[in-house]
């Protein structure tokens, strides 16, 4: 165990009050002393949460020469939602002498370097100027850039001019010297960074992303999210709040949250990666519908949700899944994945152990579904089939699609909502907005899984002109082009474009719902993959444990003190 050695201690003044300040490797504490030298309240800031230290900005004077300011993370509550926010705290200290001020500056800066080594120094930032309420550039310039500057982080900023620019940049450009990539935007922008970072890492490792049985190489380059989109589900589920300052501070302190990622395959090709939702039926239809109403901004989801609900559709399908080990956790165990989650830590331990015992290393090894257990099959008509690697909480649904899902346990939760009467389905949807258990309904099943396969029952009309064979051998589909390994690229690209499967949301989409205008009710829905529509109903999903890392630490437990000193005594945080 690390010993919390005192690096520097002295008397300091804050305004007219005298404090005894102590800097150890892990904490900077200052305790008020009254005139009789009795100790009053202590304020304690972990060194890892110090943002920066500055000399006084005031004009040169003897007094100013003895001052320094410490900037640090301060926890506050949002007035409207009672959520835990991080803000920038600052305290200006005055020293008895300039020499002592210099000692404090040196020691604090040294402690930051040695005790907070995972902080980023150089970041590549992508701003989507059109995401959410189109505030991305303003949010970055006014709230985030000044914090990065204060923390001494240098940034290369790219304001995107087209969809997939960020992904392509990460895949192709020289990223030497960058510690991480950051997006200012919504889940769509995050997804671009996710695809860029995973793709690049596999390229460098010489691994094929198309093979669902292959264990992919986990990515070193961290991803930061400054929320400025419509749903911002990934940010909300990994930080607990959608607040640009909170997220910027998590980036500055170099937090590191591993995240499970699901790869979605069709035939022998990778289609996309997902972290929050792979959803067929209701969520697919809502996304398809909402693309026609992008001009409404974030409200498009409520409008489209109501329309799709009123259509009251269900779809036939065969869902197969590979259950995760039920001894480890369950989607109905009423626990929540919080910061320092023990379920996720055990998963990390198992991964490390597997790496150390498997001489050929875990990466690049085969995932054998035979040794991984038996596939279970469910056939029927479904209102919705959803797979989520995390809770997928968001402001619309504060506990999420699966409240007990874990960010980094190597599993996903499969939620099967069988066909039911409209009121039952409304109850299910409504429970997402409350604390009532949405799985405690007779037509809902939830399973913790490692992989899922979805297929259409024989004879299902695919509502498409082409036969399945044409599609089978074609490849990764992005922004209206098929990045295929083989097959008729042009043909698929046309079809994708026709059905609106493009990632460029500035492009006006054709009707994806194949519904309202047609007399015939469609028998096939579409998949919503983290907000993108997939062109294939038949897919295979596999969860890759802890494939990427975010600048986040999971949701902090408000009931636990954020830290304790080495003697285990709780301190008051400023
Ligand atoms: N300059 C651009 N012009 C058009 N589209 C862009 C541009 N930059 C990024 N995009 C695309 O816009 C899509 C949506 O952006 P983003 O995710 O930032 O916001 P959103 O859709 O409002 O939020 P959410 O995804 O949280 O619902 C992304 O998928 C991204 O690929
Ligand atoms: C009677 C009240 C009914 C209210 C229904 C509330 C149900 C809310 C569940 C929200 C689940 C969000 C899952 C996250 C998905 C994101 O990856 C994706 C991209 O941003 N967003 C959507 O698909 C947007 C999906 C929007 C669905 C409505
Ligand atoms: Ca998970």
UniProtKB/TrEMBL annotation:
<dbReference type="InterPro" id="IPR011993">
    <property type="entry name" value="PH-like_dom_sf"/>
</dbReference>
<feature type="domain" description="PH">
    <location>
        <begin position="1"/>
        <end position="113"/>
    </location>
</feature>
<feature type="compositionally biased region" description="Basic and acidic residues">
    <location>
        <begin position="492"/>
        <end position="504"/>
    </location>
</feature>
<dbReference type="InterPro" id="IPR050187">
    <property type="entry name" value="Lipid_Phosphate_FormReg"/>
</dbReference>
<dbReference type="InterPro" id="IPR045363">
    <property type="entry name" value="CERK_C"/>
</dbReference>
<dbReference type="InterPro" id="IPR001849">
    <property type="entry name" value="PH_domain"/>
</dbReference>
<dbReference type="Pfam" id="PF25382">
    <property type="entry name" value="PH_CERK"/>
</dbReference>
<feature type="region of interest" description="Disordered">
    <location>
        <begin position="482"/>
        <end position="504"/>
    </location>
</feature>
<dbReference type="Pfam" id="PF19280">
    <property type="entry name" value="CERK_C"/>
</dbReference>
<protein>
    <recommendedName>
        <fullName>Ceramide kinase</fullName>
    </recommendedName>
</protein>
<dbReference type="Pfam" id="PF00781">
    <property type="entry name" value="DAGK_cat"/>
</dbReference>
<dbReference type="InterPro" id="IPR017438">
    <property type="entry name" value="ATP-NAD_kinase_N"/>
</dbReference>
<dbReference type="InterPro" id="IPR016064">
    <property type="entry name" value="NAD/diacylglycerol_kinase_sf"/>
</dbReference>
<feature type="domain" description="DAGKc">
    <location>
        <begin position="118"/>
        <end position="268"/>
    </location>
</feature>
<dbReference type="InterPro" id="IPR001206">
    <property type="entry name" value="Diacylglycerol_kinase_cat_dom"/>
</dbReference>
<dbReference type="InterPro" id="IPR057465">
    <property type="entry name" value="CERK_PH"/>
</dbReference>
């Amino acid at each position: 165990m690390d010993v919390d050695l005192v690096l520097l201690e002295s008397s300091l003044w804050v305004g007219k009050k005298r404090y005894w300040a102590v800097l150890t490797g892990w904490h900077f504490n200052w305790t008020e002393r009254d005139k009789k030298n009795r100790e009053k309240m202590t304020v304690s800031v972990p060194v890892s949460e110090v943002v920066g230290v500055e000399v006084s900005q005031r004009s040169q004077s003897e007094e100013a020469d003895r001052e320094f300011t410490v900037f640090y993370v301060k926890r506050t509550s949002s007035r409207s939602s009672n959520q835990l926010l991080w803000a920038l705290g600052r305290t200006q200290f005055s020293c008895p002498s300039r020499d002592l001020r210099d000692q404090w500056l040196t020691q604090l800066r040294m402690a930051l370097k040695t005790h907070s080594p995972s902080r980023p120094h150089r970041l590549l930032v992508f701003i989507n100027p059109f995401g959410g309420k189109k505030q991305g550039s303003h949010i970055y310039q006014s709230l985030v850039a000044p914090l990065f500057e204060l923390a001494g982080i240098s940034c290369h900023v790219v304001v995107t001019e087209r969809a997939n620019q960020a992904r392509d940049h990460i895949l192709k450009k020289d990223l030497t010297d960058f510690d991480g990539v950051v997006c200012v935007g919504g889940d769509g922008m995050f997804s671009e960074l996710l695809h860029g970072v995973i793709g690049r890492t596999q390229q460098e490792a010489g691994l094929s992303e198309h093979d669902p049985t292959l264990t992919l190489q986990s990515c070193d380059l961290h991803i930061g999210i400054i929320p400025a989109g419509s749903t911002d589900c990934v940010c909300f589920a990994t930080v607990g709040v959608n607040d640009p300052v909170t997220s910027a501070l998590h980036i500055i302190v170099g937090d590191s949250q591993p995240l499970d990622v699901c790869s979605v395959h069709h035939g022998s090709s990778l289609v996309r990666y997902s972290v929050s939702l792979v959803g067929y039926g209701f969520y697919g239809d809502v996304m398809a519908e909402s693309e026609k109403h992008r001009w409404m901004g974030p409200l498009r989801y409520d409008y489209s949700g109501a329309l799709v609900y009123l259509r009251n559709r269900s779809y036939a399908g065969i869902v197969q899944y590979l259950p995760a080990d039920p001894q480890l956790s369950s989607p109905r165990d009423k626990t929540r994945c919080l910061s320092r989650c023990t379920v996720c830590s055990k998963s990390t331990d198992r991964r490390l152990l597997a790496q150390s015992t498997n001489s050929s290393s875990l990466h690049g090894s085969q995932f054998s579904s035979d040794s991984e257990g038996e596939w279970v099959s469910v056939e029927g008509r479904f209102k919705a089939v959803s797979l989520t690697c995390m809770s997928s909480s968001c402001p619309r649904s504060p506990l999420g699609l699966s409240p007990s899902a874990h960010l980094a346990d190597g599993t996903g939760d499969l939620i099967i909502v069988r066909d039911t009467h409209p009121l039952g389905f409304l109850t299910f949807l409504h429970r997402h907005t409350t604390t009532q258990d949405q799985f405690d309904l007779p037509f809902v099943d939830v399973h913790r899984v490692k992989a899922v396969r979805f297929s259409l029952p024989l004879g299902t009309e695919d509502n498409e002109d082409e036969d399945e064979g044409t599609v089978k051998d074609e490849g990764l589909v992005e922004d209206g082009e098929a990045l295929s390994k083989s097959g008729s690229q042009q043909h698929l690209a046309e079809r994708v474009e026709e059905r609106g499967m493009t990632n460029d949301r500035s492009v006006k989409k054709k009707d994806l719902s194949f519904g309202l205008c047609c007399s015939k009710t469609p028998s096939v829905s579409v998949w919503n993959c983290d907000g993108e529509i997939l062109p294939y109903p038949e897919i295979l999903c596999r969860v890759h444990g802890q494939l990427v890392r975010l600048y986040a630490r999971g949701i902090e437990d408000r009931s636990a003190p954020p830290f304790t000193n080495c003697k285990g005594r709780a301190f008051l945080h400023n």
